[in-house]
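Duplicate of earlier report; Ribosomal RNA small subunit methyltransferase B input re-posted below.
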Amino acid sequence: MRFQSYFNTSVSLIKKYDGSVPLAHFLKQYFSQNKKHGSKDRKFISHLCYCYYRLGHVLKELTPEEKLKAAIYLCNDEAEEWQILFDDSWNEWSENLNDRINFIQRKYHSFSLPDVFPWQDELSETIDAATFAASHLIQPDLFLRIRPNKEKAVVEKLQSNKILFKQLSSTCLSLPNSSKIDSILNIDDEAVVQDYSSQRISEFLKLPTNDSRLPTQLWDCCAASGGKSILAMDVLQNINLIVSDVRSSILQNLKQRFAKAGIKKYDSFVADLTKPTSNIQHSTFNIILCDAPCSGSGTWSRTPEQLFFFDQKKINEYAALQKKIISNTIPHLAKDGYFLYITCSVFKKENEEAVDFILQQFPSLQLIKKEVLKGYEMKADSMFAALFKKA
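Output:
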């Protein structure tokens, strides 16, 4: 009966939720108002809600109750405690996702995997649409980036606390998403919580180090939480870091995070880069890192409610915003400098078409490398990065 109650509560929440706030915030508010739910209750109810939105835009004709059953079936390797919700017609439960997808296709003839992520025509080059759509049915992993000279300490702490992990490289670890590490590691000092694809931005940052003229001034123009800035400091080391963002509150949070990370020497300023910039403290920069505001469509397996409520018109709005930011930042790039453009989007209008715009509007820039970082193959976010050099 307990799991039937979880199911009923989840259906009630799904019917009330309108996507106006992140699902995590909505659930947190509900639980704070309903103290009867213990920690296990909150875990199971939240899991069911997230499963529902992982289905994206498939099976829209079903009732929330029936669609949630399909979601539970697709998003879980085993029936386990959820078996009570299903009759004998659901007995083909397989650990293999493709087998479960095939079963749902037989049970519901309207089911079409691409409809999980229906904007196939908008996808960037090289993305496998079917594999990408299926990836939303799987919860991504938690990824850690080990900071310089901290590998031994981090690995030993995780092992001694019996935390399961896979070491993907000397600095990258993947862990189950539910891993509790805050009390075990000194986050931002010893290791940074950073998605696998975000960590791969180091491959682009390393390219300027091959230049005999090592960068000195690096401007992280849309710094946000500062993860790319910390990465740049760890990879390039010998740089003067300048960060900016449109909100002063972001920079205040950044100050606290940099303190944890041991970054004491840097400059910061507030800037709305959709407008011509006048308050930039340095006239030119050797590297401009532009992690542009975007649809976030490469991260929706972590926040599937955004997949469910996304309005396709937003793609053009983000693309226009990105072009404004690009146009107002590249003029501050020094001769022989590097411009690194990054999004966590999978839409070509935000990615390849932004590259085309840069090359058309700024003929002095040469494209060094561009790549869709297909995190969906690694239970990670998908991103796009392009590195340019100014002649």
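The chain is about 40% helix and 15% strand.

Merging into the original ticket.
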